[in-house]
Specification:
The protein has helices at 24-31, 49-56, 72-86, 102-111, 134-151, 167-170, 184-195, 219-238, 242-247; strands at residues 11-17, 37-42, 61-65, 90-93, 117-121, 128-130, 163-166, 200-204, 206-208. Strand 2, helix 2 and strand 3 (61-65) form a beta-alpha-beta unit. The N and C termini lie far apart (38 Å). The protein contains 9 helices and 9 strands. It has one domain (8-247): Alpha-Beta Complex (Spore Coat Polysaccharide Biosynthesis Protein SpsA, Chain A). A 7-stranded mixed β-sheet has the order 3-2-1-4-7-5-8, sandwiched between helices. Helix content is 41%, strand content 17%. By secondary structure, it is α/β, with parallel strands linked by helices. Helix 5 (134-151) runs parallel beside helix 8 (219-238) and helix 7 (184-195) runs parallel beside helix 8 (219-238). The radius of gyration is 17 Å and the shape is globular.
Length: 249
């Protein structure tokens, strides 16, 4: 496969973790074949995920330890800050449970030379999902449809976590204003990226439901997303410039 023109070591992959002891070693080992740096952001996992990663002693892997369970949004924000401080040019986000495929990420890195944001998309031609129950498919597809309508975002998969952001785009954002804790964070990030008018490309990916551990999806996470997207939709209608004033440096 053709490699990107930019050295892969200028790129970092952020992986939030909470109780991923069963999968994290395999994911990091496979991901390291891409010759990228990896930052694991652990939410004080009771199963010792953080310690397992540290014992691997991979030169390309570092760990950020949160003292409590803060959620996927704050985990990514911590990772973004460290990545920007270290001067990476491309910042990828990826699940730590093996659901995202390294070959898909490799293809996305190639596309990231031409776009400021590359999104892995399950619901476009060429994309797919394995081992998901019907209700999970409905939640994801409805979430994307609902957010797209409320926020005028023309994308087919707003809830997926496999993405690559250009560091220059992230550096334009007031990261402290990103407030989502759960998977609504993925929607909020594209909302913000659209405000700064960054170029976005969706790439088809194959998503495989985790084989080990327990899904973090819950009713609370779904309700948070519905409530926040509804509020953002109203703000878009009645406070036209509010997003730019709120999010952009």
């Amino acid at each position: 496969m053709q490699e990107s023109a930019l050295s892969m070591k200028n790129r970092v992959v952020l992986m939030p973790t909470y109780n991923e002891a069963d999968s994290i070693v395999g994911v990091i080992t496979e991901l390291s074949t891409l010759d990228v740096d990896i930052i694991v952001i652990d939410d004080n996992s009771p199963d010792g995920t953080s310690e397992i990663v540290k014992k691997m002693r991979f030169d390309n892997v570092s760990v950020i330890d949160h003292g409590s369970k803060k959620g996927i949004g704050p985990a990514y924000i911590s990772g973004f800050r460290v990545a920007l401080n270290k001067g990476y040019s491309k910042i990828a986000t990826m699940d730590a449970d093996g659901s995202h495929q390294v070959l898909d990420l490799q293809r996305m890195f190639i596309e990231s030379d031409s776009y400021e944001v590359v999104m892995g998309a399950r619901w476009i031609e060429g994309g797919s999902v394995s081992n998901w129950k019907v209700h999970r498919i409905l939640i994801s597809r409805f979430g994307t449809w609902f957010a797209g309508r409320c926020l005028a975002l023309p994308y087919k998969d707003l809830t997926g976590g496999l993405r690559i952001y250009d560091a220059k785009a992230i550096s334009q954002i007031n990261l402290e204003t990103i407030s989502s804790n759960g998977y609504c964070f993925q929607i909020e990030m594209i909302r913000v990226i659209s405000v700064i008018k960054a170029s976005i490309k969706e790439i088809p990916i194959h998503f495989i439901e985790r084989r080990n551990g327990v899904s973090k999806m819950s009713k609370v996470i779904v309700l948070e997303a519905f409530a926040r997207v509804s509020i953002w939709g109203l703000q878009r209608i009645f406070r036209h410039n509010a997003d730019k004033l709120h999010y952009v440096k």
